[in-house]
Design a protein that fits this description.
The chain is mainly alpha-helical and 294 residues long. The chain contains 11 helices and 4 strands.
């Protein structure tokens, strides 16, 4: 619950700061980012939509490592204190060198079986594994999971997801306000100097409805990206068997819940009835893809 509240409050804070910035920008440069009067300024609306759409996503990306450590309680291994920590660091280093990226930070957190990678830059990312994963898998299986997470980093998945989310956000903001303007001015015949209730209600409803559609698109891409990371793990490991075994073991477990901001970068995630919104494809499909390709 604390993690969900933190995610919501962070995004609310970003939006408040952003709106204050746009208010100041409007006052200084005379740019009207609000939709008022009889004319819809599409240029100003496009700028507004781009700023709103990308700012939150980019800030979340830049803060991703800090937020992930805070929300999971992950402890970065600065200096290995035991054989397991030494092995983890060495395994990640081998995969990072083979993938051609800088050495990520390696962290361990308390929790059920799961792992994730995050960070804004390929050469300064974070790979974290749970104690549950370390306790329930063989070293070869854990190493396959680490290879999967390193593949996410080398593929640039964190940045790609941020850009996609920014594009989706931009379209949601832009389209909802265009339709809101149409409803207010054309259907409800509001001839006042300021937007009417029709604009505000339509915008709120469409922000929610289009937001769900955007989430489906982002989740679809996330599922495609998981197959690529699985294939990347096979390349780094030199065999498909360790990744297949790791996925099969995960399929018999209850995957640990991750904070929303890093959930898409985990090794496993929710499915079932909400499959359209799931960031991960079913384990069975991932195993089948590995068996078919290799």
């Amino acid at each position: 619950m604390k993690r969900i509240a933190l995610f919501v409050l962070t995004n609310l804070a970003i939006m408040v700061v952003l709106m204050l910035f746009l208010t100041v920008l409007s006052a200084v440069f005379g740019i009207n980012f609000n939709i008022g009067g009889q004319t819809l300024n599409l240029g100003a609306l496009a700028i507004f939509s781009l700023v709103v759409g990308f700012t939150g996503a980019i800030i979340s990306l830049l803060l991703s490592k800090t937020m992930a450590k805070w929300s999971t309680g992950a402890q970065v291994i600065r200096q290995p204190s035991n054989a397991m920590e030494s092995w983890l660091v060495d395994a990640v280093r081998r995969h990072a060198d083979k993938a051609g990226i800088g050495m990520p930070e390696v962290a361990v957190y308390e929790g059920d079986p799961n792992a994730f990678a995050t960070g804004a830059f390929k050469n300064s990312a974070l790979v974290a594994v749970s104690t549950g994963l370390l306790q329930s898998m063989s070293k070869e299986e854990v190493e396959a999971v680490l290879a999967h997470e390193v593949s996410h980093i080398s593929n640039g998945d964190m940045v790609t997801m941020t850009l996609l989310q920014g594009v989706m956000n931009t379209f949601v903001v832009f389209l909802s306000r265009v339709v809101g303007y149409f409803v207010d001015r054309v259907l409800l015949k509001n001839e006042g100097d300021r937007p009417g209730i029709g604009f505000f209600l339509t915008t709120i409803v469409l922000d929610i409805a289009l937001g769900f559609l955007a989430a489906i698109v982002v989740a679809w891409f996330s599922r495609r990206r998981e197959f690529r990371a699985d294939a990347g793990a096979v390349t780094l490991m030199g065999s498909n068997r360790p990744m297949i075994n790791a996925l099969a073991r995960l399929g018999g477990m209850q995957p640990g819940q991750l904070p929303q901001q890093v959930q898409a970068m985990g090794i496993s995630g929710p499915g079932g009835m909400m499959a359209l919104f799931s960031s991960h494809p079913p384990i069975e499909q991932r195993i089948a893809a590995l068996q078919t390709a290799h």
